[in-house]
Design brief:
single chain, alpha+beta, Tetrahydropterin Synthase, Chain A, 2 domains, five-stranded antiparallel sheet, 51% helix
Length: 168
């Protein structure tokens, strides 16, 4: 009997040692996962290094237009009826203008009513078919750039970005 008791103690001792090793390994893995998660969260909250020209924060102008760093001017979103033979369709869109100078930023802010009017008139004469494919969107972008640049005297729009474009 003494032999059986000694074997049982040896087995329980080796079981407890293996359980201890398993818990230690799991603890180390858990701590490692927490460390990686904390590192990644800290990295996501840290702003990336930017060139000096782009370190200026976005500022709002009196008429509600946002001027982004990097000489970008955000035009507020708009909703436009578009032509379609099957019923009424709407386009919700927002654009951002990339301009070539600070004077152009100021001029675009001053001429925002003209810019919005040109965008609304140009888009409202487009059909759903014209705006549903890539070629139509590129054509619309070129027409918008030409029309908007006709208003500018001190600078010009270099690019137009569609930041929202939903047709319903």
């Amino acid at each position: 009997m003494a032999e059986k008791a000694s074997q049982a103690e040896g087995q329980s001792s080796s079981k407890s040692k293996s359980n201890l090793i398993i818990f230690a390994v799991l603890g180390v893995l858990l701590l490692g996962a927490i460390g990686v998660a904390a590192y990644m969260m800290g990295k996501a909250n840290t702003p990336a290094a930017e060139p000096e020209a782009q370190t200026a924060a976005a500022s709002a102008t009196p008429n509600g237009t946002k001027v982004l760093s990097g000489l970008m001017v955000e035009v507020e979103p708009f909703i436009v009826n578009i032509l379609d033979g099957q019923g009424t369709r709407y386009l919700k869109a927002a654009i951002t203008l990339e301009v070539d100078s600070e004077a152009a930023v100021q001029e675009s802010t001053d001429r925002m009513p003209q810019i919005r009017d040109a965008v609304l008139l140009l888009i409202s004469n487009k059909t759903f078919g014209e705006m549903s494919d890539l070629q139509g969107k590129l054509q619309l972008r070129a027409e918008l750039m030409s029309k908007i640049n006709s208003f500018f005297r001190k600078g010009k729009v270099q690019k137009i970005y569609f930041t929202e474009f939903v047709v319903q």
